[in-house]
Structures are given as structure tokens and as C-alpha cells.
Design goal:
The structure is a single chain. This protein is α/β, with parallel strands linked by helices. Helices cover about 55% and strands about 10% of the residues. The protein folds into 2 domains: about 5-205, Class I glutamine amidotransferase (GATase) domain (Rossmann fold, 3-Layer(aba) Sandwich); about 210-330, Arc Repressor Mutant, subunit A (Orthogonal Bundle), CATH 1.10.10.60. A 7-stranded mixed beta sheet has the order 3-2-1-4-5-9-8, with helices on both faces. Strands 6-7 form a two-stranded parallel sheet. Keywords: DNA-binding, Transcription, Transcription regulation. This is AraC family transcriptional regulator. It comes from Cupriavidus malaysiensis.
Length: about 325
Amino acid sequence: MPTIDLLTFPDAGLSTLATVADTLGVANALASMHAGKRADAASPVFGWRLVARDPARWQAAAETLACRCQPLPADDAALGDALVVPPLHFDHISTLEQRLALLEWERATIRRYLDAGRLVASSFTGVALLAGALPAGRRLTVTWLIAGWLHGNYPQLKVVAEQAIVSSGNVLTARAMEHGVALTQRLVGRLADTRLARTLGQAVLDHPSRGESTAIWLRSKPAIRTSVVLRARRYLQQHLHEPFDLAKLAAAASTSERTLLRHFTKTLGTSPLQLLHRLRVERACHLLEVSTLSLTAIAEQCGYHDMSAFRRLIRRHTGQPPGAHRRAHSVRAELRG
């Protein structure tokens, strides 16, 4: 029976681990039904357990997830068949870096699973912890929240931000927390069989892409145009820190450059580059309001390396320079008011 180890630590996203445990429970029930047995009498296909530096602290969580909690494995013989690394909670990049510095034991554990050839899966901000243990050249996906930080700190890794889930050797990553069920489905397919994984997907996943080609065929041309623009917008949101590349954008939207420009003009009345600048400014304003990042760091995360241009754009959008906008609209300012 394959065992999935669920890594936990302070500030870990336990809801993600609960999603994994629940989905594996569904997989066990489906396997039981396929075998023609009662669910309570069949041998489970999967087991799972929490692993933590301080197991006593997580006993209540283990009871909630219907499993046990054990210390971080000390040798390869104690490793499970896969390790799930949950997201980390943090309020800004400096906090993330402080918390990562306290998780060296957990990072060493991740390396042990990777070196032993075990599967390692992570989603959302948990990829920040996983990235420090990955060898150069590995592909992964990550939320836009830390895409710029990850690119700057781990340039040897290949970020494929346009994909919701990326498989690279024995590493599986998901861009968002909402992909936790689909990520677990991938683990089931790798550890059990593809038939069970397919059945699991049909049972618990909505599959918004199912029948998409038929739906697009039946829709009117304006709807097709809208879908192209939505794909392009999604790509721009995930690549704000990168230089604008019309060819890459058109490829991500599954159309030609000329058609993409035409759709943008008809649907939004603007160009892709103009939309990119607007998205960058909106992201910058958000970071000014909720983070303590420096103006230079915010500009770089939003794709601006010329501070004078960055200041002009913020002033044009808000009527204030970046520093004044932060002083007027930050969370701390609201609390003072």
C-alpha cells in the first residue's frame, strides 16, 4: 500500500493537507467499489500520515485527518512513497524569507525524498520551500505572488507559470491551492494506476475544460474573441515581471499575433501592451498598500527596472507618486485612521 507523507510545520497550510487526505479517502472508496466490496471491508489502496519536526504538536491535526503523526524520517527506510509540501502563510516577501530560514530541517527532508527518487508534490506558496531543494533545470509552476521572487532567487529553475500543474521527473507542482484535488489525482496515477486516477477525476473534478472544444465550436464569434482575450490576460497576469513579447502572448492565447491584436481592439478597445501596463500598475498599487517591500523591489516584481518610468506610471494612475500612495492607502494607514 503506497503511503503519502504530509509535511507540516508552523505556518503551513493545513487545509491543503486536508484536501489531500480527503481525496485519497475518496480514491480508496472508489477502489473498493470497483472491487465489488463494501467500503468498510476493503483494504485501502493508499495510506497517509503527517510528518513533522515536533510530532506531539500535531497530534490533534493528525486525528482530524484520520492518520498518525511521526517525526521527520531519519533515513531512507522510513520514507513514504510520496511527500506533499503544503503552502506557507506569510504577509510579504521578507516574512517568507524569514520563515524559510527556520525550515532547514524540512528542506533537508525534502532533499532526502528527492534523492531517494520519491515523488514530491507542492502547490501555491509551498513551492518556495520546495525550490530550495530542487536541482538545476527542473520545471515547475508557481503563483504570481512569488513568481518574481522565485525567478530572482532560483534562476536555474524553469518556471512554467502558464500551466496549472507541471510534472518534472519526480516533482509535481500546482500553481494554486484550488488545484489540490487535481494534484492528488496525479499522485494517484503515478503511485497506483491511471484507471483509478481517471475514475477519481470523474468523481471529484469539475473538469471545466471537458467539452471545451465543442462549446467553442457552438459559440458565436464574439465568444471566441472573448476566450482569446481571457487567455491572453491570464498569461499577462502570470508574467508581469517579464519583458513584453507579442509572439509568446499570441502562442499562449492559441492564435496569431494579428488576430490577437484585432480581438483586443474589438473587445477591450486597447492593445495587449497597454493592458500589461495597467495590470502592472494595479499589482504595484496592491503591493504598496499591503506589503513593506521597497519601491525598487515592487518595481522589479512588476516588470519595471527604470524607477523614473515606474514613478511616472504610478502618478499617472493614482495622481500620487508611489511613496505618497503608500502613506495614504497602506493597511497601517487605515489602522491609524
